[in-house]
Amino acid sequence: MKDARARTRRWPMITAMVLGLLALGAFGLWRWAVASGSAGTLEWIDARFPRGAAVELAAQGRYGPDPAQRAELWVPAGQTFAEPAPATGDRAGAIAHPLVVFVHGGGWHSGAPEHYRFVARTLGEAGFATALVGYRLVPEGRYPAMLNDTAAGIRWSIGQAAKARVRGDRIALAGHSAGAYNVLMMGLDPQWLADAGVPESAIGGIVSMAGPTDFYPFTSDSARAALGHVDPPQRTQPIAFTRAGAPPILLLHGTADTVVRVRNARRLGEALRRAGAPVEAREYEGMGHAGIIMALSKPFAQGGIVREPMIDFLRRATAPAAARGAGEARPAASVPVQP
What we know:
single chain, alpha/beta, Rossmann fold, nine-stranded mixed beta sheet
């Protein structure tokens, strides 16, 4: 009897040890996957962790003839799609989730929307619908193709929102690394959205996660392959388009990022403040390039140190006009990374 009780007491400890070992192994796999560009491994790991709320696929399709020109719209589970969403989301009894368009990274040469569904799951838990937008990759996707595609993907997302009881009148853009570059260019240089027929007023805010913003001369093969042919090269730099009329921007960056140095966020933040544009910034001490996107996953959320300020900003950015406060920039913050 005593042996049975002892074995029963040991099971929780054994289970915790096994889960810890699995988490360590998953962490190693995750870091390897990000470094090697295999974001699909990241998605596979996250999908196996339970969450408090689920998301479901509301739309999936292409916005252009190239196979890479595709996107997905994910909404919090339980949504119904029988009627169009009201423009403001204030119809009695209507469900109209705010929309975030997320654009993946990968150095403009790798990545796919389906590899970043963990972002949709995380944002879905907070009540957001998430469009995951792909774009043509190098060589077909070199500048300006990736920007034209991002704008077209945003247009597709807004169009699908109207069919899925999702608010598309005031959306937010977000991206990691190369994807952060793409969405920053959408907000800073008005030509891209204008060419796609997307009103500039539809963009309530932009989140840049480890985004390259001031990186000429080009020092990486990825940047040279995607942007090296542009003359003058300054046209490719987000910092060249800082303006007072830009939408509110949140810059998230790790101080230990050796792929896209934190100076990119610092320089853009300073330039936006000088221009009178609303900008917020958070630096994560000791966090690398992979860590910033890992923190949107369930197993590596680190207590929400990236997720929570991002969601707070997104709520303000997508709020109806009467409740909007994203334009009121908050002070920059430096956040220590939890071990």
